[in-house]
Amino acid sequence: MGNKHLLQRRTFLKVVAGTAGLALAGATPAAVGKADVWGDGDDRATIIDVDLCNGCGACVEACRARNLAGVPQPVHPYPRPYPAWVRSSDWSDRTDEVSRLTPYNWLFIQSCTITVKGVERRVFLPRRCLHCLNPQCVTLCSTGSLRQSHEGAVYINSSTCLGDGPCDRACPWGIPQRQSGVGPYLNFAPNYVGNGQTFKCDYCRSLLASGENPACVAACPQGAMRTGPRNDMVKLAKDLAEQRGGDIFGLKENGGTNTIYVSSVLFRDIEANMLRQGQVGVGMPSLRPAGASMDKENSLLRAVLLAPAAGAALAGLRMWREKQMRRKP
To answer: N or C: which end of the chain has fewer CB within 10 A?
Structure first.
């Protein structure tokens, strides 16, 4: 690392320090940390009926057909971040991976074998973003890139996402997936901020906004997915669970979500069998109720306090980058 690199870093840190000071004083950019709404619109919820799903994968194919082409290919080699606090993550040579969530695969079928009343059966669960009613990822995003639509879709604004990680750390189920070497951070100081871009299910928000079903719901040949006004879907989920003596996941978890699972089998039993069969891990969410240890709560609190400063620093960084570009002959 030469003197020129060191001087540029010092200049950058001055910009960050200055803009962070403004942020702590309350002068933050208007766009930072704002969502479109906070679940105050006509939320559309989806019921996923575990008893009807046969794991055919039609929903996965429909999701990929709609979204795969929109995920960019990364530049190689990646700009090496300094300091390297965010590890690189590259799925560009595994875009056909469908056994877990990746930047290129936003929905997958999670399954396990379970014995119920002496009868063995296979359980299938389509897994994607649950679209929480009050999503922490939106609250904690330092650049305001995560938003929530009037229909309840939690989505990422790709024009500002830096892949810096608060969203995947905040998500109780580890849904957001990062791809290095893509995104706006490449256009300004790529060695100093960000490390790619984060991707996840956006609930086909443009379809929801026009009154249509998400692609996965429309493609399901078993009728295992249904989308409608959340109040109606909550009532239907409760009725189905009562009829079967079954269970519901998504009504209260993490404050409630717009993805509601219904099953005749208890979800704690499904979770236990998935754990035993190695079906839970990175990119393969659990079904445990959302909860946080004290360490995680403290970590999230620090993120909340730092988010305005980080957002303002980003704005200052952009100004610095533009100034540097104007100086070039």
So the answer is: C
In the chain, the DSSP E strands lie at 44-49, 108-116, 119-127, 146-148, 154-156, 177-179, 197-199, 225-229, 247-249, 259-263
Residue-wise pLDDT for 181-223, tens only, equals 998 888 877 776 667 899 999 999 999 999 999 999 999 999 9
pLDDT at 283 over 90: yes
* Nearest-5° Cα angle at 43, 40 to 48: 150
Query: According to the model, what pLDDT value does residue 114 have?
Result: 97
Token output for 299: 């970590």
- Tens of pLDDT, residues 123-166: 999 999 999 999 999 999 988 999 999 999 999 999 999 887 78
pLDDT value of position 313: 55
How far apart CA 121 and CA 112 sit, in angstroms, is: 9
Total residue count of the chain as it appears in this document = 329
Which single residue is written with the structure tokens 């754990």? 275
DSSP 3-state of 48: strand
CA-to-CA distance for 46 and 233, rounded, in angstroms? 7
What average pLDDT does the chain have? 81
Overall pTM surpassing 0.85 (yes/no) = no
Exposed, middle or buried by CB within 10 Å (0-12, 13-18, 19+), for 280? Answer: middle
Residue 102, SS3? Answer: strand
Residue type, 99: S
- The two most distant CA atoms of the chain are separated, in Å, by 77
Query: In DSSP terms, which residues pair with 263 in a beta bridge?
Result: 247
Give the domains, in start order, of the chain with CATH numbers: 44-297 (3.30.70.20)
Q: Cα separation of 142 and 32, whole Å?
A: 7
- Is the bond leading into 83 cis (omega within 30 degrees of zero)? yes
